[in-house]
Fold this protein.
Amino acid sequence: MKTIFDKFDKGVIASLPQAAFAGRIEVVSGESKAKSAVDYLLSQPILGLDTETKPSFHRGDGHKVALLQVSSHDICFLFRLNHIDMPDCIVRLLSDTEVLKVGL
């Protein structure tokens, strides 16, 4: 059984070894490339997810997600949502229930 923590000691984090992604990174800023990237990603057993959003410094202000990062073990796709919005293929990827998706 694995224990999941909701708080981490910054000293412990600083003592951990650094890791770097050794795979390929591809920027996706067009819908046709997004479709082929999603097809590849949905063929993988597990995916890592992260997003980037413009920060907001005022209560009540918010911004759309600008970048969706989705990675398999060997390729990380950076979907520029601020350029391609939310095409159907991204909705299909995020709605899929077959491929395990992990995010932090």
Summary: The chain has a mean pLDDT of 91. DSSP finds four helices and five strands in the chain. The longest strand covers residues 46-53. The beta strands are 24-28, 46-53, 65-71, 75-80, 100-103.
